[in-house]
């Protein structure tokens, strides 16, 4: 049993009423003079049913027994993303709604951890930070500094993040995959 709200993150699998639920979205909230809560969107691993659940501070929950295996992202269609197990070279697909939070970070050939429950793949876990190329942003101007401000930049996956003013098209940047925020120039 676990009872720390900050352990409830995207990609984790929690058991509710004996069924495993994948956390596809989570948001931590703390308001004045109230207990903190973790709002989540869950998807039942067995039947795909969606559920909104708010976990309260002090509430106990249990994580499901899962396995992780190194996998490589291959491509996606309108409904599914395709991966390959790097140990067995077996290919498998995951419905896009099971990994919607990870999609903006997936590039063909990216190595990730596949999350398996009872031999069936249910989700993917990304590395905490990943490197992407900036494909579109406003040009930098002489005098722009790291502490001066920020501007939007479109990455090679289509994700838009705020970057410092000195970042130009073609630069590689490191992005935090949990918060989708710029970390540093790579």
List its salient traits.
five-stranded antiparallel β-sheet, 15 strands, single chain, mainly beta, 3 domains, OB fold (Dihydrolipoamide Acetyltransferase, E2P)
Structure report:
This protein is 0% helix and 52% strand. A hairpin with a 7-residue loop joins β2 and β3 (37-44). The strands form 3 sheets. The protein has a 5-stranded antiparallel beta sheet with strand order 4-3-2-1-5, with no helix packed on it. The chain has 3 domains: 5-63, SH3 type barrels (Roll); 67-125, OB fold (Dihydrolipoamide Acetyltransferase, E2P); 129-185, OB fold (Dihydrolipoamide Acetyltransferase, E2P) (Beta Barrel), CATH 2.40.50.140. The chain contains no helices and 15 strands.
């Amino acid at each position: 049993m676990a009872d720390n709200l900050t352990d409830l993150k995207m990609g984790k699998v929690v058991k509710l009423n004996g069924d495993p639920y994948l956390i596809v979205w989570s948001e931590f909230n703390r308001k004045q003079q109230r207990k903190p809560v973790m709002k989540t969107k869950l998807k039942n691993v067995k039947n795909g049913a969606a559920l909104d659940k708010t976990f309260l501070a002090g509430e106990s929950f249990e994580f499901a027994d899962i396995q992780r295996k190194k996998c490589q992202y291959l491509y996606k269609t309108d409904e599914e993303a395709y991966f390959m197990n790097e140990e067995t070279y077996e290919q498998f697909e995951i419905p896009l709604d099971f990994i919607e939070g990870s999609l903006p970070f997936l590039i063909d050939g990216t190595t990730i951890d596949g999350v398996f429950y009872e031999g069936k793949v249910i989700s993917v876990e990304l590395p905490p930070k990943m490197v992407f190329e900036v494909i579109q942003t406003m040009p930098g101007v002489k005098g722009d500094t790291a502490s001066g401000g920020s501007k939007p930049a479109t990455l090679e996956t289509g994700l838009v993040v705020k970057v410092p003013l000195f970042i130009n098209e073609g630069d590689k940047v490191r992005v935090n995959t949990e918060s989708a925020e710029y970390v540093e120039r790579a």
